Here is the input.
Amino acid sequence: MWKARKFKSWATRDTSDNKYDYDRFMCPLVLQRFAEYMQKNRIQSDWNLRDPDNWKKWIPIDAYMSSMMRHVHDIWMEHDWFKSREWLEEALCWTMFNAMGYLHEILKKNN
Here is the structure.
């Protein structure tokens, strides 16, 4: 049975029951900071600009894991008030990148 929401304007729409609530699962501030980080890191050491989705081509999960653990260590160091190799926000963005890349490879393999 179709369930509807009715608005003051008398417009109707189906309910949002069991639908993903992306705007509440994520934070636009975090996504903006991550996009800034990704944009900055498009510039390679040879000064060429890589495509924003270059990472989707294929990076071995072992590379993601090694990098992610280095950056998690930086976060842990900063969390415990020790100096790390990099700024905390950068380490968090690096960790997000590696976690998403790792998950991307797993999902590609499973689909």
The two ends are 31 Å apart (CA to CA). The longest strand covers residues 4-6.
